[in-house]
Amino acid sequence: MERSTRKGSNSPTRDQLSQAMELCIENSERFVQDAELIYKNKSYGHALSLAVLAMEEIGKTILFWRVGLGYESFDKKLWEDLFKKHKPKLKRALNQILALSIARNKSAFMKFIERMKGDLNKEKQDGFYVNLKDKHEFVSPSNISRKKAEETIELAKSLMELSKGAGRLTWINWKASMH
After folding, report:
1. So where are the chain's domains?
2. How far apart are alpha carbons 140 and 127 in whole angstroms?
3. What is the pLDDT of residues 88-115, one digit of tens each?
4. CA nearest neighbour of 29 among 10, 8, 9, 51
């Protein structure tokens, strides 16, 4: 039987965390594929929103990775960050991807930094719903530009690739540490 990631804790095992990471990566890939399909049909707002959802799944991957390495404990706050809140997943993805991207893809990281200055979660909401911008102006997902949707999809793809690389390294390190 495999041990938990922390002695005496209720944390998932490394096998469970690896499975969760794989599932999150698969789901982020599906979000990106769907985003690309509807982008081709000129539904830019919905495409942008699906790309942001892909980034949130990548953020979950990073959180599972950190739990497996012992940097975080699987407590109530982490549970809420993983499954109930959107901004923490995006912020945590940003923090972890900093180290990975400097070595591999600095331009993707710089684009992510620029986008995080704004509010990706709000952009995701704007891409899905008709909202009231000011007291007298409504905005629609059709207001999202082709360029913004394209940039968001490309950013999600870059972050997904970085996340996959981190996952492969983690699984190798976890297996080595178990022997």
Report:
1. 14-177
2. 7
3. 777 766 666 666 655 555 666 666 666 6
4. 51
Token code pair at residue 139 = 């905005």
- In the chain, count of helices (H) and strands (E)? 7, 2
Is residue 156 a contact partner of residue 55, using CB atoms and an 8 Å limit?
A: yes
| Helix (H/G/I), strand (E/B), else coil: 13 | strand
Q: Judge contact between 151 and 111, C-beta under 8 A.
A: yes
Query: What 3-state class would DSSP assign to 23?
Result: helix
Q: Would you say 56 and 120 are in contact if contact means Cβ atoms under 8 Å apart?
A: no
**Identity of the residue numbered 55:** M
Q: Which CATH class is domain 14-177?
A: mainly alpha
* H or E element at residue 131: strand 131-132
Select from 72, 75, 65, 88 the least CA-distant residue to 19.
Answer: 65
pTM above 0.85, yes or no: no
Contact 148, 48 (CB under 8 A): yes
Closest C-alpha to 66, from 88, 86, 87: 88
